[in-house]
Write a structure and sequence with these properties.
Blueprint lengths: L15 E3 L4 H7 L6 H18 L1 H7 L5 E8 L5 E6 L9 H4 L18 H9 E9 L5 E8 H7 L3 E8 L6 E9 L6 H13 L1 H5 L3 E5 L2 E2 L9 E2 L15 E2 L1 E7 L5 E8 L10 E5 L2 E4 L9 H4 L5 H5 E8 L16 H12 L6 H35 L4 H7 L20 E9 L2 E10 L8 E7 L6 E8 L3 H6 L4 H23 L3 H17 L10
Parallel strand pairs: 2-8, 14-16, 18-20
Antiparallel strand pairs: 1-6, 2-3, 3-7, 4-5, 4-7, 5-6, 8-9, 10-11, 12-13, 13-16, 14-15, 17-18, 19-20
Length: 534
């Protein structure tokens, strides 16, 4: 990168673009407290704003025009991210503003309002980045490249712009990021998808936007709303003639001219995650997506209440500013007033959502749960009585051969069809790495295959567990329900971590014996079902 302007291409244009003020400001941007989904959202915001501003022209070129944004990720060779859109592109006359930090756009009524998004996100993500763009009617494609080390070291204040001939009707922006500071590894990529599909749900719903993340098109699945009687009119046996849809409109006016409107509802089926309120601004979600739901305690109470499992809604906020990373509102002292007025509105007659979410769920569950508890108790006792005694001698024999304390089983093999997750934690100055795998192993006799390594010297623990979904016990009791399968997974993790703790304490042989006995009992005796569920 040099201070001497260079050009390529045919049509005359100013050969360089200023990035003053703020070379020193740019160096700070790599340390922003971003989440990767909010950083990627900056590019989507810009594309939506560009398409909206150029919509009439884009529809002239293509009457069926639809905005497409494609986010491509490659973690190899230092990592690379590309964001490609078919919006209006960056016009040449706007380059000085577009590439200058904190140069606000003339129109701040849309999603691009701070003049920081593309620059801050790109510098946060990568050491090197390039923008390639053209707008309809321009005969050139322009390219501007950032090398952050050179910009900061040499205090570069103007960047070279190169140009190549283009179709005058073409329009796009491609942002290329490489030598990444931030990677989308493991669960992070899944969380990026979850957040982005929720942030842009309004645009996905009406087909304003087609958004793809790492090869997967984003779709927002609408939760079903509860249709049920008012818990106060339901008879003792659970019967009622009137089923209501538990959905209501919300329209709140706060001080300082702030207005919050939208709707709230009760889910047909409760969920312990991805549930809560979503607060929008200009049709884009600011707060309440993915694994960071907006659940004020004044509304939802504390802990895992029935309300927290079922109450959800979408509210558009007018009149409040947001943070420059667009991940929160600046409430200006009004959030408490909002919570109070929202609570009143939610429980207003004739549809008191909070009371219904709490009491209807509790009453109906108690009757259904009682029937299931009774049936499960009777079934388990009957199966145990008939099936355990004949296999007890095998259980004793199975445990007779001790296993090495630091290798309680053969290392589970994996296949391309398996589902695998890894988590880590610290305990007593030991680093624990636990890998969970689910996959069918028809030839494997155990429902749970595990392997534990304890590193000499450090004592660090590496545990691998395979939940054999082809085992009769799981096929009979767990595969028909994601909740049941998750419950079995959690029990398996608890057992393997407990076994590993005993192993690190020097009692690995007893722990391994216990696990082998459990495996045999579940496989030989407790995988049978003698009666059907009610």
């Amino acid at each position: 990168m040099s201070d001497t302007p260079t050009t390529t291409g045919a049509t005359d244009f100013a050969p360089a673009v200023s990035i003053v003020p703020g070379v020193s400001i740019l160096g700070v941007l790599s340390n922003l407290n971003y989440e990767p989904w909010y950083a990627l959202a900056e590019y989507v915001d810009n594309a939506i704003q560009s398409a909206s501003r150029s919509y009439a022209r884009l529809r002239q070129l293509d009457p069926n025009y639809q905005l497409n944004v494609d986010i491509v990720y490659d973690e190899h060779q230092g990592g690379r991210i590309e964001i490609v859109d078919n919006a209006g592109g960056i016009a040449r006359r706007d380059f000085d503003r577009a590439f200058k930090a904190a140069e606000v756009p003339p129109d701040r009524t849309g999603l691009s309002e701070f003049g920081m998004g593309m620059k801050s996100a790109s510098i946060w993500f990568a050491k090197n980045w390039r923008v390639v763009t053209t707008s309809a009617g321009d005969p050139n494609i322009y390219s501007i490249e950032f090398d952050m080390q050179a910009v900061l070291q040499d205090k570069v204040e103007r960047l070279d712009v190169t140009a190549a001939a283009a179709d005058v009707d073409s329009h796009f922006t491609r942002i290329e990021l490489w030598n990444l500071n931030q990677f989308l590894r493991g669960r992070t990529l899944g969380k990026v998808r979850d957040h982005l599909r929720e942030i842009y749900r309004a645009f996905l719903r009406d087909d304003t936007l087609v958004l793809s993340v790492a090869g997967q098109n984003m779709e927002f699945i609408e939760p079903d709303v509860l249709r049920a009687p008012d818990y106060r009119t339901t008879s003792a046996d659970g019967d009622s003639d009137v089923a209501l849809e538990w959905h209501k409109h919300i329209d709140l006016h706060l001080d300082e001219g702030v207005r919050i409107k939208g709707w709230a509802a009760i889910r047909a089926e409760g969920r312990t995650n991805s549930n809560g309120l979503s607060l929008f601004r200009r049709r884009r979600v600011i707060v309440g997506t993915g694994d960071t739901p907006y659940r004020p305690a004044r509304i939802y109470g504390q802990g895992n209440s029935y309300r927290s499992q079922r109450l959800f809604g979408e509210l558009e906020v007018e009149g409040l500013p947001v943070s420059h990373t667009k991940d929160g509102f600046q409430w200006q002292g009004l959030e408490e007033e909002f919570h109070e007025k929202l609570r009143e509105a939610l429980d207003e007659e004739p549809l008191p959502l909070l009371k219904q979410a709490e009491h209807y769920r509790a009453r109906q569950a108690s009757r259904a749960e009682l029937r299931r508890i009774r049936a499960a108790t009777e079934n388990t006792a009957e199966v145990a009585e008939h099936s355990i005694p004949p296999v007890l001698h095998q259980v004793v024999e199975e445990a007779a051969t001790p296993a090495p304390p630091t290798q309680v089983s053969a290392r589970p093999d994996t296949t391309s069809h398996d589902v695998t997750q890894t988590f880590t934690f610290q305990h007593d100055d030991r680093a624990w790495t636990v890998t969970i795998t689910a996959g069918s192993r028809a030839s494997e006799k155990d429902w749970l295959v595990r392997h534990v390594d304890i590193e000499a010297g450090s004592g660090n623990v590496t545990a691998q567990l395979l939940l054999n979904t082809g085992h009769p016990f799981l096929k009979q009791f767990a595969l028909g329900s994601s909740d049941a399968l998750e419950a079995v997974f959690r029990v398996a993790v608890a057992m393997v971590v407990t076994e590993s703790l005993q192993t690190t304490a020097g009692d690995g042989e007893s722990a391994a014996k216990f696990m082998r006995q459990v495996n045999l009992l579940l496989g030989a005796a407790l995988s049978k079902r003698l009666r059907s569920d009610p």
